[in-house]
Amino acid sequence: MAVRILTLVGSLRSGSHNRRLAEAAVHIAPEHVEVSLFEGLDTVPFYNEDIDAEGSVPAAAARLREATAEADALLLVSPEYNGTIPAVLKNAIDWLSRPYGAGALNGKPVAVVGTAFGQYGGVWAQDEARKAVRIAGAEVAEDLTLSIPSSVVRFAELHPVDDPEVTEKLSGVLEGLASRAAATV
Ligand SMILES: Cc1cc2nc3c(=O)[nH]c(=O)nc-3n(C[C@H](O)[C@H](O)[C@H](O)COP(=O)(O)O)c2cc1C
């Protein structure tokens, strides 16, 4: 059976380079790996403990939890906003971190990659994302990294799937994440 990797993208804009990077992951997934994109992170309300109660969990948040629970591993694909994680991704992590000790991220293999305009390719945001999911109980693949600088310039005309350096490194991340997921089932 294929290893299922769910990607969460930390940018909502239609022309997002990170979204395209996630699309590249779908496209180049190794034979035994199935990569999908979670759609609708923008419809997940801000995390609020008052509504995180039986019968009150918003449908979009419940859908995010279900999709994550069904996946064998998660790939977070994110830019950096003001030196840290974009709010939309942090919000998703917060929903996935609860119920405490039993959230959908608990024990889930997670890798974090991304592209940003700055010269370090968004490493601060990616490191913060790793920290947050680690605290939420995920098995973070610390060594599977990919931070692509100059997003706006590098991908102005070029889709990441047509960038051999990117696809080679991204394939390595997918292979590594898939083998970690296979080892945890
Ligand atoms: C609100 C905001 C804050 C940003 N802060 C950073 C930053 O701290 N570091 C950085 O490298 N790029 C920063 N950028 C530039 C983004 O990295 C760049 O626009 C990136 O391509 C956005 O990702 P996307 O193409 O997936 O939407 C920022 C962009 C926005 C809109």
TrEMBL record:
The record, for Gene3D superfamilies, names: 3.40.50.360
InterPro entries recorded for this chain? Flavoprotein-like_sf, FMN_Rdtase-like_dom, NAD(P)H-dep_reductase
- In what residue span(s) does the NADPH-dependent FMN reductase-like domain sit? 4-149
What is the superkingdom listed in this entry's lineage? Bacteria
Q: Any coiled-coil ranges, and where?
A: none
GO cellular component terms, semicolon-separated: cytosol
**Single GO MF annotation:** FMN binding
PANTHER family in alphabetical order:
CHROMATE REDUCTASE (PTHR30543), NAD(P)H-DEPENDENT FMN REDUCTASE LOT6 (PTHR30543:SF21)
Protein name listed in UniProt:
NAD(P)H-dependent FMN reductase
The source organism is Lentzea xinjiangensis
